[in-house]
TrEMBL record:
GO terms assigned for molecular function: DNA binding
Tagged with keyword Transport: no
Keyword set, alphabetical order: DNA-binding, Transcription, Transcription regulation
InterPro entries, A to Z: HTH_LacI, LacI/GalR-like_sensor, Lambda_DNA-bd_dom_sf, Peripla_BP_I
Limits of the HTH lacI-type domain: 4-58
Lineage: Bacteria, Pseudomonadati, Bacteroidota, Cytophagia, Cytophagales
The protein's name: LacI family DNA-binding transcriptional regulator
Keyword DNA-binding annotated: yes
Protein species of origin: Hymenobacter bucti
Length: 337
């Protein structure tokens, strides 16, 4: 049986091939009635599109990119799963790029995308990112960009974030309600909006509870586990009355547990611990860890849907479409649950 072509569909419908092609791609430029006619005929004649030809005609690569700082964090792994679930429904491939928390790497990746390598980008910025110049260059080439988890206010593009201030305040209140009066706050990249929001939530809860904010109890941690362990150990030795810890990154969990073990501090008897973490291993630690769990998969899905909405119609999405999704406090034995 001879393969039905786009030209044959167009001739039978008395339409141009470009109109038929756009209708098959569900373009906003084509009316619902015309789309229906095209799709009905395509089904009746068993039309099979040529993906290579359609991508050339539309100048689409059928590929999107996800740019993230790392993959060791289970949050980003789950977010990628959410993005891929949406992309696969639409017949798109997903390329993963890592910045390793370096601005230069992020700049080079986005510059490469300006040549049309991908149709759109979903990104969580690096720890070193303080400027959006390289992002504006990408947008100037009409490549849609959606930011998630970590964002920067200088660029007007949609974001999908979690309620970091509120969830940090909730975690702090949880410790206060469990009898903690001196709470160590382990900050992670305080220069990022996400770090600032979590610190603000901690301070807000202390103020509401009538407890003093003590700057010496805020510790800026980084990427090196050994350095983090040393910092935590030293502050716990200096602040002997500390009876609660909030760790704002999953990667700090083991350093907290190890420091407490080395200093013979029992969890939760001597000190209670909450960590922002999406790791399933939190439930099998000794003791099981109370966590602030972010909706990582749902965040990835939401970011991908915004991106594909923008790919369908570049004027359909703006910064006003940004979303904030709620995190969840899961109480376990590390706080006496």
């Amino acid at each position: 049986m001879e393969k039905v072509t786009l030209k044959q569909l167009a001739a039978e419908l008395n339409l141009s091939t470009s109109t038929v092609s756009r209708a098959l791609q569900d373009s906003y430029q084509i009316g619902a009635e015309t789309k229906s006619r095209v799709l009905q005929l395509a089904r009746r004649l068993s039309y099979v599109p040529n993906p290579h030809a359609s991508s050339l005609g539309s100048r689409r690569s059928k590929t999107i990119s996800v740019v993230i700082p790392e993959v060791t964090d289970s949050y980003f792994a789950q977010a990628i799963n959410g993005i891929e679930a949406v992309a696969q429904e639409r017949g798109y491939h997903v390329l993963i790029y890592l910045t390793h928390e370096r601005l230069q790497q992020e700049q080079e990746i986005l510059k490469e995308f300006q040549g049309g390598r991908v149709d759109g980008v979903i990104m969580s910025i690096s720890a070193e990112t303080t400027s959006s110049v390289h992002m504006r260059g990408l947008l100037a080439q009409q490549v849609p960009l959606i930011l998630f988890d970590r964002a920067i206010e200088q660029v007007q593009t949609p974001t999908v974030l979690t309620n970091d201030l509120e969830s940090s305040a909730q975690a702090t209140w949880h410790l206060i309600e469990r009898g903690c009066t001196t709470i160590l706050f382990l900050s992670y990249f305080r220069n990022l909006s996400i770090g600032q929001a979590r610190l603000a939530g901690y301070r807000q809860a202390l103020q509401e509870a009538g407890l003093p904010f003590q700057p010496e109890l805020v510790v800026d941690c980084g990427l090196d586990d050994e350095s983090n362990l040393q910092l935590i150990r030293e502050v716990l030795q200096k602040q002997a009355h500390t009876n609660g810890i909030i760790a704002t990154a999953e990667g700090l969990t083991l350093s907290v547990y190890q420091a407490c073990s080395e200093l013979h501090l029992g969890i939760p008897a001597d000190i209670k611990v909450v960590c922002f973490s999406n790791s399933r291993s939190a439930a099998i630690l000794n003791p099981p860890l109370t966590t602030v769990v972010q909706p990582a998969f749902e965040t990835g899905q939401a970011a991908a849907r915004l991106l594909f909405k923008s790919l369908k119609n570049k004027n359909a999405v703006s910064a006003s479409d940004s979303q904030v999704l709620p995190s969840k406090l899961v109480v376990r034995q590390s706080t006496g649950g």
